[in-house]
Amino acid sequence: MAAQMDPDAVAKAFVEHYYTTFDNNRVGLGGLYQEASMLTFEGQKIQGVQSIVAKLTSLPFQQCKHNISTVDCQPSGPASGMLVFVSGNLQLAGEEHLLKFSQMFHLMPTPQGSFYVYNDIFRLNYA
């Protein structure tokens, strides 16, 4: 079950799945959130699956590629949650310059033994 899994392996698998889905089929990210989930995107707070998917699919770029530099994780709290902190570069289609970003996920276990995103905070890092 998920509780016995290596947190680093879980975090790495989650991050790979999340960004592959984001880059190829953004609507598919809806399955990773629940109604209580909250996204803070560049300071804007959004709650609930539909609102989060609406935000992510309405971003002003259609195609992008995330290149992950670091993934750090910690077990979080008595409910077997997990904090995952990601940094990397975002390449937008047709753009030369890479955008640096940081993103923090608070993952919570589902009864089915996987995880969903309870909290998600995203920031571009401007030099």
UniProtKB/TrEMBL annotation:
One Pfam family it belongs to: NTF2
| Task performed by this protein | Facilitates protein transport into the nucleus. Interacts with various nucleoporins and with Ran-GDP. Could be part of a multicomponent system of cytosolic factors that assemble at the pore complex during nuclear import.
This protein is called NTF2 domain-containing protein
Q: What InterPro entries does this protein map onto? A: NTF2, NTF2-like_dom_sf, NTF2_dom, Nuclear_transport_factor_2_euk
Task: Say which species the protein is native to.
Answer: Microthlaspi erraticum
Q: Does the keyword DNA-binding apply?
A: no
GO BP term, pick one? protein import into nucleus
Q: Which UniProt keywords apply?
A: Cytoplasm, Nucleus, Protein transport, Transport
Instruction: Pull one GO CC term from this UniProt entry.
Output: cytoplasm
What residue stretches are annotated with the NTF2 domain? 10-124
Q: What is its main location?
A: cytoplasm
Q: How does it assemble?
A: Interacts with RAN1.
Protein's cellular compartments: Cytoplasm; Nucleus; Nucleus envelope
Q: Does the keyword Cytoplasm apply?
A: yes
